[in-house]
Amino acid sequence: MNVDYISDVSTGITTIDGQPVIFHCNHYNRVLQYTIENSVFVKSREIQIRSAATVAYLAMKAHFEANTSMSRGEKLIYASEVYRMGGYGILDLSVANALDGGGSIQIRTPSSHYGFALCLNFEPQIEPGELFDLGYAIGALSAVYGKPFNGKIDEGSISMGGSETMLRLWAGDDGYQDLFTLEPSIARRDQAPGAFAEVPPKTYAPNIDEALIIGELAKVSLVGDPVTGLIPAFGVNLTHMFADYYNLISYHFEKRLTERMEDFPGLAEILVYNYPTLFYFQQYFRLEGLDLIKAMFIEAGHVCGFNTMGGIMNSDAWKQLVLPMIQTRDDWLQGIVSCINALGWGIWRIAELLPNERLVLRSWYPYESLGYLRWFGIAPHGVDYCMAGVAGSIMNLMYEGDITSYPELNSDYYNKVNRSENSFWVDQTRCVAMGDEYSEIVVTRKPRH
Predict the structure, then answer these.
(1) Angle 134-59-28 from CA coordinates, rounded to 5°
(2) Which of 146, 218, 284, 403 has the fewest C-beta atoms under 10 angstroms from its C-beta?
(3) Do 200 and 169 share a structural domain?
(4) Can you tell me whether residue 162 is helix, strand or coil?
(5) Claim to verify: residue 167 and residue 277 sit in the same structural domain
């Protein structure tokens, strides 16, 4: 059964059934989930399950409305294929065909991207962590049957060290009734100046043929393996994830945690001690309030930039495709930005580069800002956290470390390049979600106090 990904080279956006999808790696996925799930002050598991249900429901609903001749069995197979091709694992929803408007069903998941990814965290899960898997199943079945489903993760899961994850789904529960009325505001997004802005041509490092890089990467089959449903590439496991899953879990969590911090001022100090990342940054930057939450999300971007972008620059594909174009050491940055522009994140441009000192990076159609506009409207502050974290990490890989020597990308090297007293820091100076035509991140070495 065909699953069609539609890419727009003018915006860098890829969609499936009208929903934007982007590539991200298992390290970003696990750190972002850990960041959100580790808070005892917000009902974060509910946020993640509901967000997954939302994006799955909207995608499946759009597909079924466009293909009205599909049988129920075909719809269930299609939803299973979207899950598998996206690199999420194996989730055979066809067993739910036995449900005739009621009852419950157990769905076995022998391979889960999130299950395996969460096992890489330093701290073991205290509860099953396959929250995206559960939410996806809830949303997909709700769309197939036209009635709300609910579910839970049964005892034992891959994320808890088990050999498989078991999902229990049932119909007739009103807990997800709002899926049938909740939709993003396309009109609200399209009123923003950045919704139809013209992307300027690439001006930095003309020897780097970005169109060729994007075209060649587009030929690579980055879909889930038929047996495992995983996408191993560039030294990581990738997912072709619904962009709004990331956006919904991040911005709902930010909103709720901000409200909690306003109600309980002492919460900020507790957060610093609960999150090792914040404890580290607080030694240098005196982060307060919202800046604490921003730092948590930017750190997930740091991990993504280190592992995914570092993995790309360490790969055979890089050596064969990009390296022959490189004339100077600094061309590596334009090379990796060109690769990023094949991930569905929007279109990035290097506006300024002072080697070993400063990078100004701009993005047109950034997925984070566009998602914020769709779901929340105009933002009161910059929200392109992943972009910021990746920008900082690639500068650290380039100038605080030496990615050109193809180092082993392990935790020791991560701490060396991203935890040095001379490492780079980021500031967002423009944001599409705030009404700008593009988002802008400025990366500099920031003196520690």
Answers:
(1) 55
(2) 146
(3) no
(4) coil
(5) no
Q: Does a structural domain hold residue 401?
A: yes
- The answer to whether 14 touches 20, Cβ cutoff 8 Å, is yes
pLDDT tens for the chain, 449 residues: list them: 788 999 999 999 999 999 999 999 999 999 999 989 887 778 899 999 999 999 999 999 999 999 999 999 999 999 999 999 999 999 999 999 877 766 789 999 999 999 999 999 888 888 999 999 999 999 999 999 999 999 999 988 999 999 999 999 998 777 899 999 887 777 677 888 998 999 999 999 999 999 999 999 988 889 999 999 999 999 999 999 999 999 999 999 999 988 888 888 777 777 776 777 776 776 666 666 778 888 889 999 999 999 999 999 999 999 999 999 999 999 999 999 999 999 999 999 999 999 999 999 999 999 999 999 999 999 999 999 999 999 999 999 999 999 999 999 999 999 999 888 888 989 999 999 999 999 999 999 976 65
Whole-prediction pTM value?
A: 0.95
Residue 348 exposure: Cα atoms within 13 Å on the Cβ side: 27
In terms of residue numbers, what domain contains 74?
43-180
Helix axes 385-395, 331-340, angle to 10 degrees: 150
Q: Looking up tokens 């962009």, which residue turns up?
A: 243
- Is residue 20, in this structure, part of any structural domain at all? no
Q: What angle do CA 384, 388, 391 make, to 5 degrees?
A: 140
Could you tell me if 218 and 362 lie in one domain? yes
State in Å, rounded, how far the first CA of the chain is from the last one: 58
Domain tally, the chain: 2
Q: How many C-beta atoms lie closer than 10 Å to residue 445's C-beta?
A: 18
Residue 36 falls within a domain, yes or no?
no
The 10 Å CB-count burial string (b at 16+, else e) for 346-370 is bbbbbbebeeeeebbbbbbbbbbbb
CA distance 163 to 158: 6
Same domain, 378 and 441: yes
Distance of CA 217 to the CA centre of its chain: 19
Instruction: Copy the structure tokens of residue 3.
Output: 């699953």
Q: Where among 153, 180, 207 does a domain terminate?
A: 180
